């Protein structure tokens, strides 16, 4: 067995050629890609912040293939970067050094292995996209209650490894809360099959929780058993104009007070974020008569057959309107309209990407502190980063705001980006004072490592280092991330 490309790549050392030859033999046809034009997309992150080409891309078809690949790479001491849909907001799934690492793509492991609609679980492979998993659950009459803007591309392995959050965290928790069982391959090729589908399994360390959110630094997730929910029988979705951030929290409290279990999503969009959308979203149409300084998109849902959900929605809105907590509202009258409301929310990230360079601050604070966070951040930006536009939106019901700063209009993108680290530090100082987190749902990747080193205690980092050293002593799994 020999590789046809042997000889055309002088940059490959003898060791690397040997390794790639063994990997090609282990992974079979299509299992190793090295042509520069084919590997290029695997080296650049979604935001275009980092571009480091891998030496090669590995595409195993099954768990045994992942194990074989990691065994060979460990023996050669070559680092491996696991990659799913490559939608990380913190460059967590691309190499940290140019030309020195291998990317291991989970894309070919894309089987939905089993769905238990009565037991409300599903077993999926790591390369299944979140949307494909949602669709499979829905076809079986259930709900996979995790929804994020990138769900069409994001894959289950990455969703779990980064403990993704999104729009239904409020009601169902983060990705880790949906993980009942996991299958993981360690750096040395050891396979841990923990694909149990039990609601109760109290047998020592919760290993599945250790790997969730570990950003691929402890092992590669190859399959998972996810907890499902019953499919809602009714939904009511509403777009509201609100006069202030305080009013958004007032509205949140009203809905929670009325029917907490029915509150599936409660999202905030600032007027500035909406304006960016208006400029960059194709076919943008505001669902309300007039523009507002703030908006909320909220969704109620219920599995109950006889539940006056629409009446609940209308009654709470009427009271809120009367109290001046909202100034306008539109309730979706069809599935198409509901989709249109959500499209506006889910396009914010893409619109902002098109608008130029930005510094993303995915932060959280106790929910009651959100108004103070936004006010203090706006004042700080005005004083210390004049021209930077604050484009805030996010999961306000969780206290998680994407407090993003966009480069000045007609400003210089490179000059703005050069001050990005300072801006992030200034925002994080406010966040820490309010008892918050500098990364609420996007993780650390290679963009927030500096903040992680500065803002987490020595003890906390030391615990993580020791866990990492125990499972991956040579630190060959996703190097340059987290630490
Ligand atoms: C969202 O909530 C994502 O849309 C992306 O977490 C946030 O682009 C962002 O900053
Ligand atoms: Zn988000």
Automatic annotation (TrEMBL):
This is 4-phosphoerythronate dehydrogenase (FAD-dependent). Keywords: FAD, Flavoprotein. Gene3D superfamilies: 3.30.465.10, 3.30.70.2190, 3.30.70.2740, Uridine Diphospho-n-acetylenolpyruvylglucosamine Reductase, domain 2 (3.30.43.10), Vanillyl-alcohol Oxidase, Chain A, domain 4 (1.10.45.10). It comes from Acidiphilium cryptum (strain JF-5). One of its GO terms (biological process) is respiratory electron transport chain. It comes from the Bacteria. Belongs to the FAD-binding oxidoreductase/transferase type 4 family. GO terms for molecular function: catalytic activity; FAD binding. The keyword Flavoprotein applies. Residues 50-231 form the FAD-binding PCMH-type domain.
């Amino acid at each position: 067995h020999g590789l046809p490309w042997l000889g055309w790549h002088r940059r490959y050392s003898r060791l690397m050629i040997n390794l790639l030859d063994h990997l090609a033999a282990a992974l079979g046809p299509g299992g190793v890609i090295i042509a520069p034009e084919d590997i290029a997309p695997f080296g650049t992150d979604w935001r275009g912040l980092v571009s480091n080409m891998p030496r090669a891309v590995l595409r195993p078809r099954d768990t045994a293939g992942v194990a074989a690949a990691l065994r060979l790479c460990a023996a050669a001491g070559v680092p491996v970067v696991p990659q799913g849909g490559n939608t990380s907001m913190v460059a967590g799934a691309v190499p940290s050094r140019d030309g020195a690492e291998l990317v291991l793509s989970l894309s070919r492991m894309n089987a939905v292995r089993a769905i238990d609609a009565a037991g409300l679980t599903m077993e999926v492979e790591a390369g299944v996209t979140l949307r494909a998993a949602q669709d499979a659950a829905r076809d079986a009459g259930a709900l996979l209650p995790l929804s994020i803007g990138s769900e069409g591309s994001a894959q289950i392995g990455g969703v779990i490894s980064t403990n993704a959050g999104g729009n239904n965290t409020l009601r169902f928790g983060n990705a880790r809360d949906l993980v009942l069982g996991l299958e993981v391959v360690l750096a040395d090729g050891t396979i841990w099959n923990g694909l149990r589908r039990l609601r109760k399994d109290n047998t020592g360390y919760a290993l599945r929780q250790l790997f969730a959110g570990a950003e691929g630094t402890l092992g590669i997730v190859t399959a998972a058993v996810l907890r499902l929910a019953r499919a809602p029988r009714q939904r009511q979705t509403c777009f509201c104009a609100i006069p202030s951030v305080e009013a958004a929290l007032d509205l949140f409290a009203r809905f929670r007070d009325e029917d907490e279990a029915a509150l599936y999503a409660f999202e905030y969009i600032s007027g500035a974020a909406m304006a960016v959308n208006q400029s960059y979203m194709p076919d943008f149409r505001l669902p309300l008569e007039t523009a507002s300084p703030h908006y909320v998109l909220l969704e109620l849902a219920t599995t109950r057959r006889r539940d006056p959900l629409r009446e609940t929605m209308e009654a709470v809105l009427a009271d809120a309107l009367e109290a001046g907590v909202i100034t306008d509202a539109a309730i979706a009258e069809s599935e198409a309209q509901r989709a249109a409301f959500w499209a506006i929310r889910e396009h914010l990230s893409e619109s902002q990407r098109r608008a130029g360079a930005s510094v993303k601050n995915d932060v959280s604070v106790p929910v009651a502190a959100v108004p103070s966070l936004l006010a203090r951040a706006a004042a700080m930006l005005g004083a210390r980063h004049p021209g930077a536009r604050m484009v805030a939106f996010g999961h306000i019901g969780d206290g998680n705001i994407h407090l993003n700063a966009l480069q000045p209009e007609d400003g210089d993108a490179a000059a703005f980006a050069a001050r990005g680290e300072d801006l992030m530090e200034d925002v994080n100082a406010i966040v820490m004072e309010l008892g918050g987190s500098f990364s609420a749902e996007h993780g650390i990747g290679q963009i927030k490592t500096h903040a992680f080193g500065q803002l987490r205690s020595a003890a906390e980092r030391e615990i993580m280092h020791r866990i990492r050293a125990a499972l991956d002593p040579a630190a060959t799994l996703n190097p340059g991330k987290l630490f």
